[in-house]
Amino acid sequence: MLRMIARRTGFCTSAVVVLWAMTASVASADIAAVGTAAFHRGDYVRAFRELAPAAARGNAKALGLLGFMYEHGFGVPQAYAAAADCYYRGATLGDPFAQAMLGMMYDKGHGLPNDYVLAYKWLNLAAARSNGRQREAYVRFRDAVAGKLSTYEIIAAQRFALEWTPDRPGPDVHLTVK
Are 107 and 71 in contact (CB under 8 A)? Predict the structure, then answer.
């Protein structure tokens, strides 16, 4: 009888922990959704207020949107270094938008040194992880960067992309901010 009560208590405790974890992740997703909706409405102050906590908890989409806000000065002071940091963290977590925008920052040299190999790598990853019009745009950006590279540099960039896995720093781990 005592074992049965212990099993039920253990089961209930496990169930509560699982439900709490599910609720916490749903809450995080809801905060990011509210922030994303505010961003798309042009309410950048609210978007920042909603997205910043989600980004601090490692929400890749929130990091990408915050990076865009910093890059363009939407609701926050324009700061390329902050944008590059947000994009990098979102990109390493696997968000295609953050990957593409990080690639564009490497291409333009905004907040980061010009590095066309890394620009190609991140744009290639973004194209591979997206679809539709978004993918078409990322492919066009990647191909424009490819025009600035030698065949060997393209091969190196493709190798970097193939060896990349989410949430594992790659060759650009020493993110140098201008």
Answer: no
